[in-house]
Amino acid sequence: MKTFKLGGVHPEENKLSAGKKIEVMELPKQAVFPLSQHIGAPAVPCVAKGDIVKVGTKIADAGGFVSAPIHSSVSGKVLKIDTAIDASGYRKPAIIIDVIDDEWEPTIDRSEDIVRETTLEPKEIVARIQECGIVGMGGACFPCHVKLSPRTPVDVVIINAVECEPYLTADHSLMLEKPEQILIGVQLIMKAVNVKKAYIAIENNKPDAISLMKEKAAAFPGIEVCPLKVKYPQGGEKQLIDAVVNRQVPNPPALPADVGAIVQNVGTAYAIYEAVMKNKPLFERVVTVTGKSVKNPSNLLTRMGIPMSQLIERAGGVPEDTGKIIGGGPMMGKALLNAEVPVCKGSSGILLMTEKEAGRGEEAPCIRCSKCVTACPMGLEPYLLSKQSEYAMWDEAEANQIMTCIECGSCQFTCPSNRPLLDWIRQGKGTVGGIIRARAAKK
Amino acid sequence: MNVILVAVIVLGLLGLILAALLFLIAKKFAVEEDPRIAQVADVLPQANCGGCGFPGCQGFAEACVKASAQGSIEGKSCPVGGKAVMDKVSEILGLAAVEAEPKVAVVRCQGSCAHRPRTSEYVGVKNCHVANATSGGETGCFFGCLGLGECAASCSFGALHMNPETGLPEVDEEKCTACGRCVKACPRHIIELRPMGKKGRRMSVLCVNKEKGAVTRKACDIGCIGCGKCQKVCEFDAIILENNLAYIDPAKCRLCRKCEEACPQHSIVAMNFPPRKPKPEAPAQPAAAAPAAQPAEAPKVAKVETPTPEPVPVKAASPVSEAMKEMPNPMSDQTQQETQK
């Protein structure tokens, strides 16, 4: 069984909502669209207060090349362009829309028919993807059209259907229900970057998805399903390239495209299918709502901009013993300030951790056991980097490749002394990144 | 015997030759340094705090000597040594003494537990920078003090400490040298160096929240809502209103205290003023007037925190002393409640 070679950990899987049908969420009363839902420049609003919008109307333009437009997921009236708390834990500019009814833009094909053929040229496909505001749906939200315009020629596309985060099952359920649409989406990506070979990488804990995708992929030349060993972080971009095609991406600023590979999330492939074949911008996604005490862990097809509290309500409400609400999975997700945070393009899941799980163990001194070094999938020394961040030794941290860290959290997960390794490394990464950018700007 | 003699002679000669060589090399490669740099460095406090903006005392001494060639060391000042040291430096450099205004660190946040209710709990690393990068913080105000004490830890002079009751840092004005380390240590830029003012008297807006008024008011009952009332009453144009936040320009402020009275949120605080006589007809005496009572006994210690624990303003009639007596109990109760949560 293929896997990445360096480090990794085995967190408890807890896929409570696995195999559950995707349910469609009801509409919210009010939808909130933060302007920075993606990596890069924030979007610029192109509607004004009082404007009437339909489902699929563009409400914000891309703020640059590395940016993405935002489309309304509801039809109604723009209440105001104000600020709202988003998943970052801060108040950021957002467009707030009062929902009136559910009228869609007439250009969107709402039929259930699967469209298989397109006459669009590769450049047109990328342009359509850009127009529809598609970003990486795995959580990082990197604008998709940027990835599909590589600087160097690529020869392989890898579809990330690993879903190595514990608890999350959104991608799994999507594969079970929309396999053909996903495969057409993969074909579109292959056509866009002129590649003949694609792998769909799925972790071995989803045998039903593997067999279904294998069966359907037989009709698609060049697409191969690649089962992977269950190990975290198998779904990390660099880990995936290592596992599937045995190529190692050099340290930043090198990108996966530099070794001839493009990685896209399976949710992104589905969104690309909908954008290109159905002319539907990105305003809907599958979100897993889960947790050990949650009454009814579910996979919900939801419009964006809907407050997360509504999704939690649908899954049975907030349990009594909730200690933390996490946006995303337990390893890389982030605790939310409150449940009113809107669902965004990158919201893959909502995890309600019990108080017992959410508590941090008492921090003890480092005993130099080197478990973190063994666990690090990037071959770094987390104990050292965290100390260097703590003592503001930025030059040393940079020399020790702090920017290579993918923030997977394996080090902190494995630390027997409960040291907040990743907290410090993230802090250091942010500061060193700023120093590097300032240096580049000077030159 | 012969062997010893030869060894002594050879080594002796070798020593002489090398000594001569070293002497010549030292002459040839001697670095010319202005002797005044060492003299200036000697009178500096050698705290190497960097408060002057130069890398340590040596760097400051070099900069002063370099500037003296232009005939003035204006704009350079050692915040730790103050006027006494700068006078000595001027003397060494043969220049007229430069008047530097003494400054002091001011914590621009009054968001204690009583004023700023906690809405969430932060469980990560107890470090202001990490907390600031993680989320907006434990309260609805994303601009105010995080209360993790990075500034207090950075102070080399013991002039800053965290008040456990309010969770906010407090400046000991007697010890503060205005070196500016705390200003750099705070990720939210809450601490500002402000001119000390005559007898330590000065006016400040103790809030840095740039949110709209309604949002600020919801998060904190003592935050500046940018209503502009202070700007209207100010006769000296000293108040700048930007991004829903008022700022008092210390150069223009004439300490009339009208803005303090006008501020509906009690965000404007007068420091180190003698206590006011309570006016019976005055409409709602500002809560901020209460700390003014303090300096009568201890004039040098800045009380950043208004000791009014209730969110409602103190009634005009209630004597200041009574308000102070009542202070500790409700405050600690509140704090306990918060921690239990």
In short:
The complex is a heterodimer of chains A (443) and B (341). Chain A is 29% helix and 20% strand.
Number of domains of chain A: 4
Radius of gyration of chain A: 21 Å
Poorly predicted runs of chain B are 282-341
Q: What is the general shape of chain B? A: elongated
Major sheet characteristics of chain A: 6 strands, mixed
Largest sheet of chain B: 2 strands, antiparallel
Give me the side-by-side strand order of the main sheet of chain A: 1-14-13-17-15-16
- Tally of strands of chain A: 17
Strand neighbour order, sheet with most strands of chain B: 1-4
Number of domains of chain B: 2
What's the tally of helices of chain B?
12
CATH topology (fold) name of the largest domain in chain A: Rossmann fold
In round numbers, the mean pLDDT of chain A is: 93
Distance between the termini of chain A: 47 Å
Name a few traits of the molecule.
heterodimer, A: 443 residues, alpha/beta, OB fold (Dihydrolipoamide Acetyltransferase, E2P), Rossmann fold, Ubiquitin-like (UB roll), 4 domains, six-stranded mixed sheet, four-stranded antiparallel sheet, 14 helices, 17 strands, 29% helix, globular, B: 341 residues, alpha+beta, 3-methyladenine DNA Glycosylase II, Chain A, domain 3, 2 domains, two-stranded antiparallel sheet, two-stranded antiparallel ribbon, 12 helices, disordered C terminus
